[in-house]
Design brief:
single chain, 495 residues, alpha+beta, Methylamine Dehydrogenase, Chain H, 3 domains, four-stranded antiparallel sheet, 5 helices, 17% helix, WD40_repeat_CS, repeat, WD40/YVTN_repeat-like_dom_sf, ubiquitin binding
């Protein structure tokens, strides 16, 4: 059903609170029931409140996964399962199938060697994607097929109305499948393909870490490129009307039509997933642990006090750079002058942005730290308060990119075999904990030491990305020797 209303006037309908970690995935079971997955290892099922149709309340919490839960999909209702079945994939490498009537786990599928990153239903089969670079087909609880043609982790998989499957990967490609046969490989993205969606007339939408959305036909030709996000795009969804919604690391959910952005919905964290409801309302999953529903329908918008509280939270998360006048900043040629103090910062004008660089005595060069927003946006500051969950998400995101290149160079046999991705993941978790301790020590020096560390906002500086970004760049260069890559990894304690 296509609703006729203004897609450029969405406002907050309600906030769904209950998850203890960032919300990673959304499954729209029907317009009155949605499921969400989280880093907190749980899945929550939400239903429309019978006393207030604007609001959803948590009706079930599904427990069983032992690590982050990500992708979700659902089977439609049938006689045996009148509310349908939910499928979930997890970083614990397993896939669970749940009875939505009572929340019971009715199947556990094990076979992937690494995190399950995508699930889709194909008639009565389940097809899953994984960081282990494979796609697997499951039938009646058993593994029946395994395909491996992507050169890097597979991040997403989708069943098309025409019967084929399409997958997206860290190798920056999409593959169109008929059974185990690859019909076509779509190339054009310059970053990981993270999200996929069906578009009218049997077309395919893709979202990528390169910050772009692309619309493809079945021949692999690009019909449209949508630009507007300023960071990695994690998810995309579409309606029969041709409207599109995307979620990004830039903290925006964007609504599109005919290649133009109609509206941007700002969030206080990364937007991991965004989906349309049948009504045209939008559900978003955010790294602050909150699920939000947005509406353009009269009479469904949240009370003004709730809207004011939400935008108050947004204003607290905006980065501000006090007193900066872009026209007074030095030009890029000022970076040709060396500096005598390690860590000294200089902000210069680059186009319509102010970009801050820091001097490295070790590297004897200026390194980029962070960029301001566009000229007519709110002012920027180098440090912003974020939750521990957001720090986890940010570090995970950067390290996932390192992992992508590790997988690529391992494929090309340019990295010593003893450097395994599992070891990198373990070291990453340790590094994340060190980061949190160091940040907390600086921020809370001399303050109450009995604070609740999991709930207290910490400080995230863009400069924390420098070393990791250097590693990514170095791994991306084909001329790097194995020992040089190893040394670069050691510099950021990844090995």
């Amino acid at each position: 059903m296509v609703m006729d209303f203004d897609f450029s006037k969405y406002n907050l309908r309600c906030e769904l609170r209950g998850h203890d970690g960032d919300v990673r995935g959304i499954c729209v079971c029907n317009d009155e029931t949605i499921a969400t997955s989280s880093r907190d290892r749980t899945i929550r099922v939400w239903s429309v409140d019978p006393f207030d149709e604007r609001v959803y309340t948590s009706s079930k919490t599904l427990l069983g996964h032992t690590n982050l839960v990500g992708p979700l999909a659902c089977f439609p209702p049938n006689e045996e399962y009148p509310q349908g079945r939910l499928v979930s994939g997890s970083m614990d490498t397993s896939i669970f199938v749940w009875n939505l009537v009572n929340g019971e786990n009715i199947q556990t599928l094990k076979g992937h060697a690494m995190e399950v990153t995508g699930v889709t239903v194909d008639n009565e089969d389940i097809v899953s994607a994984s960081v282990d670079q494979t796609l697997k087909r499951w039938r009646e609880g058993k593994l029946v097929e395994c395909w491996k043609t992507h050169r890097s982790p597979v991040q997403t998989v989708l069943k098309l109305p025409s019967g084929e499957l399409v997958s997206g990967s860290c190798d920056m490609s999409l593959k169109l499948w008929n059974g185990e046969k690859v019909l076509r490989t779509f190339t054009g993205h310059t970053g990981t393909v993270r999200g996929l969606a069906v578009f009218p007339e049997n077309q395919i939408l893709s979202a990528s870490h390169d910050g772009l959305l692309r619309l493809w036909n079945h021949q692999g030709e690009v019909c449209l490129v949508m630009r507007g996000h300023t960071s990695r795009v994690y998810s995309v969804d579409a309606r029969a009307s041709g409207h599109i919604v995307s979620g990004s690391e830039d903290r925006l959910a964007k609504i599109w039509k005919d290649g133009a952005c109609l509206q941007s919905l700002e969030h206080p964290g990364f937007v991991w997933d965004a989906k349309f409801l049948e009504s045209g309302d939008i559900v978003t999953a955010c790294s602050d642990g909150v699920v939000r529903i947005w509406t353009a329908r009269d009479g469904m918008i949240a009370d003004q006090s709730e809207i004011d509280a939400f935008y108050g939270k947004i204003s607290q998360h905006r980065i501000t750079l006090w007193g900066m006048n872009l026209d007074e900043l030095p030009e890029v040629d000022s970076l040709s002058l060396p500096c005598l103090a390690d860590g000294e910062e200089k902000t210069i004008k680059e186009g319509n942005n102010g970009v801050t660089y820091a001097w490295s005595m070790l590297k004897q060069r200026w390194g980029k730290k962070f960029r301001t927003a566009d000229l007519d946006a709110a002012d920027l500051e180098p440090i912003v308060e974020v939750s521990p969950a957001e720090i986890d998400a940010k570090v995970d995101s950067m390290l996932a990119i390192c992992g992508e290149y590790l997988q690529l160079v391992q494929q090309e046999k340019t990295l010593p075999p003893e450097i395994q991705l599992t070891e990198v993941e373990k070291a990453c978790n340790e590094k994340k904990q060190r980061l949190r301790r160091e940040i907390a020590t600086v921020l809370f020096a001399g303050k109450d030491q009995n604070r609740n560390e999991e709930k207290t906002p910490l400080r995230w500086s863009k400069s924390m990305e420098i070393d990791l970004e250097d590693v990514v760049i170095s791994l991306a260069k084909k001329d790097k020797k194995p020992f040089q890559i190893q040394n670069m990894l050691k510099k950021v304690d990844l090995i």
